[in-house]
């Protein structure tokens, strides 16, 4: 097998490691590309290509994350990871860990960890690497990596949301939610929302943005008011998994992406709605709509009689 073939075979794993460390599709793709350049420039053949490439992409991602943290401190409004519609890496033996670790809620928890803690947690808890491999990847002793893993696991467990185990129930509730969502069914929405539900948007100062909205009544009223006019002007609500959780992509009449929605569901109710409108975070998914123009057109449609 050639170097290129080996790399392509491992590319999904490398991207998945980098994305969980960085929370950015674009930065993860750049980290994977840099890993390939270093692999191609190396004059020696590693004993384990998987170990070498995983260590390389981890080190690159840690460096990128350290500089990204500074930028995120100056971010306008709430910061969310870039939405991921499909994780390219599959491992039946670790499917539960992979699905949980890519959710918006889990990635936001990972933001609380130091870059080293985050890398160690991802390699150990998500991908099942041994501490010897992790120590080589992060250039720390095995003992230090074990301590980092313990601290990271404690921080994650303290804030980890407990999603319902039954994926089918989540999908059925999400289907009912989006039916009510598209119809502007106020009562139907309120019935599916937790009493203390929160809706939060990430516009990054580049799209229409609202302050976090809390409470089933408030969230239901907002959704019932804004979605029907959007549909009336040709907008489409496309149900889709977003970061491994029930969600949707909203598109304009030309198919351009307006935003994504991701739902956290617990105890048979929607607990959190996270929407991403920042065009910079949507560009990897395709052409992005002009959110301001859509808002103006939807407002005009709302004022017109049916």
UniProtKB/TrEMBL annotation:
Residues 7-69 form the RNA polymerase sigma-70 region domain. The keyword Transcription regulation applies. Residues 105-156 form the RNA polymerase sigma factor 70 region 4 type domain. Signal peptide: none annotated. GO terms for molecular function: DNA binding; sigma factor activity. It comes from the Bacteria. SUPFAM superfamilies: NTF2-like, Sigma2 domain of RNA polymerase sigma factors, Sigma3 and sigma4 domains of RNA polymerase sigma factors. One of its GO terms (biological process) is DNA-templated transcription initiation. Keywords: Sigma factor, Transcription, Transcription regulation. The keyword Transcription regulation applies. Belongs to the sigma-70 factor family. ECF subfamily. PANTHER family: ECF RNA POLYMERASE SIGMA FACTOR SIGJ, SIGMA 19 FACTOR. Interacts transiently with the RNA polymerase catalytic core formed by RpoA, RpoB, RpoC and RpoZ (2 alpha, 1 beta, 1 beta' and 1 omega subunit) to form the RNA polymerase holoenzyme that can initiate transcription. This is RNA polymerase sigma-70 factor (ECF subfamily). It comes from Thermomonospora umbrina.
């Amino acid at each position: 097998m050639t170097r290129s073939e080996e790399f392509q075979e491992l590319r999904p794993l490398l991207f998945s490691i980098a994305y969980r460390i960085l929370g950015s599709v674009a930065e993860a793709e750049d980290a994977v590309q840099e890993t390939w350049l270093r692999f191609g420039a190396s004059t020696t053949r590693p004993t384990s290509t998987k170990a070498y490439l995983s260590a390389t992409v981890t080190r690159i991602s840690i460096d990128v994350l350290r500089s990204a943290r500074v930028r995120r401190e100056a971010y306008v409004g709430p910061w969310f990871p870039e939405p991921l519609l499909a994780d390219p890496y599959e491992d039946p033996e670790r499917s539960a860990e992979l699905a949980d670790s890519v959710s918006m809620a889990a990635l936001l928890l990972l933001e609380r960890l130091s870059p080293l803690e985050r890398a160690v947690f991802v390699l150990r808890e998500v991908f099942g690497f041994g501490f010897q491999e992790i120590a080589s990847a992060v250039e720390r002793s095995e003992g230090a990596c074990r301590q980092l893993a313990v601290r990271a696991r404690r921080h994650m467990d303290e804030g980890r949301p407990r999603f319902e185990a039954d994926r089918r129930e989540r999908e059925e509730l999400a289907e009912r939610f989006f039916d009510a969502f598209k119809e502007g069914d106020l009562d139907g929405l309120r019935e599916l929302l937790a009493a203390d539900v929160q809706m939060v948007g990430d516009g990054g100062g580049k799209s229409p943005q609202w302050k976090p909205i809390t409470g089933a009544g408030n969230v239901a009223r907002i959704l019932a008011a804004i979605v029907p006019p959007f549909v009336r002007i040709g907008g489409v609500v496309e149900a889709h998994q977003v970061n491994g959780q029930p969600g949707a992509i909203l598109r304009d009449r030309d198919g351009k992406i307006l935003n994504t929605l991701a739902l956290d569901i617990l105890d048979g109710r929607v607990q959190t709605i996270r929407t991403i409108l920042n065009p910079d975070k949507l560009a990897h998914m395709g052409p992005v709509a002009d959110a301001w123009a859509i808002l103006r057109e939807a407002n005009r449609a709302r004022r017109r009689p049916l």
